[in-house]
Write a structure and sequence with these properties.
831 residues, alpha+beta, four-stranded mixed beta sheet, four-stranded antiparallel beta sheet, 18 helices, elongated
Length: 831
């Protein structure tokens, strides 16, 4: 029996054809989103099914199983698991920047926990999802038969939202894939508004899609769209790579979680992770950190806890007392997914063809799509308005001739006869005649007749507006813009993800940290902190001040200076080594806080102690303006040495040698100089010597230096100061152990030859104590801060300190709460 005709075919040809059909099916009907609504078929079918079931954001929640069943039975002939997985993702706040489904129940977690079974969870459309489906009944989109040709489904949604960029997308097709990051609605809306403002329309184009030209660049768009905005927050880097991704549709964007170093007391620190990179599993991250600690690949971590709750993410990484927080954090970035990359590959269906899309192309297609939707909606509303106008005109005729109409109806044998007679008598259409016969008697009242006339007038206005709108494409674009701006007002929010313009490891903290004056304090046992200058309020001379630092009983305040947060800081130790940090690396703390151990900032050796701190700008023009070229150092035994500042520009973490010391000597002081200054050394016993800087020849770092002052037995240097053109006409502040101090004119210190015994700086007595602090008073100084060994602090106006001669003791500047307390440090503050 001949059933059918057999057509011979090469197996290779047949396999090629079959595989190509399969590939195109996967590409077009499964894995890639449409550029117009940003949805894959499964997502579109879920939203349409929920819309058909009336599951709006104002309705009650419905079982997810019902939605899945509706989608499977009518629209999506695949397994229930993929449909439910797609539904779940639309309801996850850590996956979606703007959730399209409002879920109730367990929809999974950022730890990778699976959602509850579909029979337990409930859902409904979110408020923002209704904007995706708005006007779908107004013939705005095309419909196609479903898989069994029983109903029709939309080929795309009206999508008032620029959803492709908002929700992002990820999929693997055959021979291609897509990975589009989510974005911020407010930024995308601003970019589209700017784009519409630069759109040109050509009336001569054959195709409507070719009628638009957009005179805008990716750089212009990036003035509004800073970069991806992930629901989990975090930080992204490198504006050049972001720009490349937007310009070409491909790129790699570096993401980091938000991690901050906190001082937890006891000289210990903790790293607090509060935001994760997008799509990073928190439980896996915590387990990875634990494994790295166990395998000793990361050292310095003493405890690890996941303290996350419904209020947000909090991973607590406690560090050991001797750990270096920044080093540990950098290792976390290096070895875990706390730092990862997002491989941007913006592939979408444009006119049903897969295409790698730039940011500009995506926004162009969205504008064209919305123009088309608003045009079709207006055409539909125009047809509806004209139909209604037609009926209202018939009703108005009937009301104007109501007695005659009633008479015709009464004399007619049937409704059809009455309809025919009305059509003949008043020249009405069949639709108008039917509407008159269906009219209720209450419409005959005077107010009801007025309503017909008012509605007719309003309908005619609407028709005029719609006709004008359809004749002017630029007015349609204005409607698109206005609708988008209303969406921004309703749903727009602030960015969650921070954008740093520079690359990781190369970004400039100067761009991120305000440059402001701060006060640096350091205790003798090595605890350091910075506080804003405004922390201390000015008092009158002789006051008791406030507690400025919580110290141990055996600890004392050792160093106090002012600096700018952008300055570079050199830590010079008694062993003759130099270490380098930036001022912003010093932890900011409260006035009463002890601060952080300096060993957490620099890798000093055991037993090594910081004796001097220098702060200066790294900018060459500012160095030149400040007259900074050399570092002059002085040891406790009076040796001085000078080296060029450029020799200390690149200091390794372990520090470098600054001076070779004689046995028993210590490097005690260091100052920045210009090369043409005078140097003033002051000793504990109240002696001082001033000599020209050029008497000390600049030498390499690993040299010994020369004698600066000849000291008596038991005496030692307590300060080194630089006298230059700006300071030679100012005063010199001297403060002694028991709170007594004074100012002395710099001119009272005559210049001598280097290496002599010097002259008196003050009269030292038992009631004054010996000299503790000496410092040149800057011209723009307005106050001085004094700190005691037991943490007491007082801030005085510099004008309250009297100017006295060298051969005097001074006046009481600070009274102590504890009689055994003494002055530890002092520094002048500039205006």
């Amino acid at each position: 029996m001949n059933i059918g005709k057999i057509v011979p075919s090469e197996i290779v040809t047949e396999m090629q054809r079959a595989y190509l059909d399969y590939a195109m099916s996967v590409i077009v009907s499964r894995a890639l989103p449409d550029v117009r609504d940003g949805l894959k078929p499964v997502h579109r079918r879920i939203l349409f099914a929920m819309h058909s079931l009336g599951m709006s954001h104002t309705s009650r929640y419905t079982k997810s199983a019902k939605v899945v069943g509706e989608v499977l039975g009518k629209l999506h002939p695949h397994g229930d698991a993929p449909v439910y997985e797609a539904l779940v993702r639309l309801a996850q706040n850590f996956a979606m920047r703007y959730m399209l489904i409002d879920g109730q129940g367990n929809f999974g977690s950022v730890d990778g926990d699976p959602p509850a079974a579909m029979r337990y969870t409930e859902c409904r459309l979110s408020s923002i999802a209704t904007e995706m489906l708005l006007d779908i009944e107004k013939e705005t989109v095309g419909f196609t038969p479903n898989f069994d040709n029983t109903i029709k489904e939309p080929t795309f949604l009206p999508a008032k939202l620029p959803n492709l960029l908002l929700m992002g997308s990820e999929g693997i097709a055959v021979g291609m894939a897509t990975k589009i990051p989510p974005h911020n609605l407010s930024e995308v809306a601003d970019a589209i508004v700017a784009m519409i403002g630069k759109t040109k329309i050509s009336a001569s184009s054959v195709k409507q899609q070719d009628a638009f030209s957009f005179d805008i660049t990716v750089e212009d768009l990036m003035e509004h769209v800073q970069g991806p905005d992930f629901p989990t927050g975090g930080i992204i880097y490198d504006i050049s790579e972001i720009k490349n991704a937007y310009a070409t549709g491909r790129g790699k964007i570096v993401m980091r979680g938000k991690a901050e170093i906190e001082d937890i007391g006891g000289g210990k620190s903790a790293i607090i992770i509060s935001e994760l990179p997008y799509q990073v599993n928190k439980a896996v991250l915590v387990a990875k950190i634990a494994d790295l600690v166990k395998d000793k690949k990361i050292e310095g971590i003493s405890d690890l806890r996941d303290e996350s709750d419904r209020r947000g993410i909090r991973v607590y990484v406690e560090l050991k007392r001797d750990a270096k927080p920044k080093q540990v954090l950098n290792n976390l970035y290096k070895h875990t997914n706390l730092q990862t990359t997002f491989p941007v590959n913006m592939v979408a269906l444009v006119d049903n063809t897969p295409q790698t899309c730039s940011l500009k192309l995506i926004l162009e297609e969205y504008i064209k799509h919305r123009h088309d939707v608003v045009k079709k909606r207006s055409e539909f509303e125009l047809r509806e308005a004209r139909a209604r106008e037609h009926i209202l005109e018939g009703l108005k005729i009937a009301v104007d001739h109501i007695d005659e109409v009633i008479a015709i109806i009464k004399k007619s044998a049937s409704a059809d006869e009455a309809k025919t007679k009305l059509m003949t008598r008043f020249t009405l259409s069949e639709i108008q005649s039917t509407a008159i016969l269906d009219m209720q008697l209450r419409r005959l009242a005077a107010l009801e007749r007025q309503k017909i006339e008012d509605e007719l007038a309003m309908i005619r206005e609407t028709i005029t507006y719609l006709l004008d709108l359809l004749q002017h494409p630029e007015k349609i674009l204005k409607v698109v813009k206005d609708e988008l701006q209303k969406l921004k007002e309703k749903y727009g929010d602030n960015r969650k993800t921070k954008v740093f313009k520079s690359k990781v490891g190369q970004f400039s903290d100067e761009q991120l940290i305000p440059n402001e004056e701060v006060i640096i304090t350091m205790s003798e046992s090595g605890y350091i902190k910075r506080v804003p200058r405004g922390t201390f309020k000015m008092q009158e001379r002789g006051g008791k001040g406030v507690i400025g630092m919580a110290t141990k009983e055996e600890d004392t305040i050792d160093r106090l200076l002012t600096a700018q947060t952008h300055d570079n800081m050199l830590f010079i130790t008694d062993a003759g080594r130099v270490y380098q940090v930036r001022v912003w690396d010093i932890p900011e703390a409260s006035r009463q806080s002890k601060g952080q151990a300096v060993v957490n900032l620099i890798n000093i050796e055991s037993g090594e102690r910081v004796t001097s701190i220098l702060a200066y700008s790294l900018k060459k023009d500012e160095q030149k303006e400040q007259g900074v070229k050399f570092i002059l150092m002085a040891t406790k035994n009076g040796t001085v040495k000078k080296s060029k500042l450029t020799e200390y520009e690149n200091i390794r973490r372990s520090g470098i040698v600054a001076i070779k010391l004689e046995s028993g000597d210590q490097l005690a002081w260091a100052r920045l100089t210009s090369g043409d200054d005078d140097i003033l050394l002051v000793t504990h016993e109240g002696k001082s010597i001033r000599f020209k800087e050029d008497e000390v020849r600049a030498t390499a770092r690993d040299t010994m230096g020369v004698r600066g002052a000849l000291l008596a037995k038991g005496d030692y240097v307590v300060s080194v100061d630089v006298i230059n053109a700006d300071t030679k006409s100012t005063d010199f502040l001297t403060v002694m152990e028991k709170g007594v101090g004074k100012k002395t004119a710099i001119k009272d210190f005559p210049r001598q030859r280097r290496g002599g015994q010097g002259i008196k700086v003050a009269v030292v007595k038992d009631k004054t104590g010996k000299v503790v602090v000496s410092q040149i008073v800057p011209k723009d100084c307005d106050s001085v801060i004094l700190t005691s060994t037991k943490g007491q602090v007082v801030k005085l106006p510099i004008t309250s300190v009297p100017r006295l001669g060298r051969a005097t003791s001074g006046v009481i500047l600070m009274r102590f709460t504890d009689k055994s307390d003494t002055i530890a440090a002092a520094t002048c503050l500039t205006k």
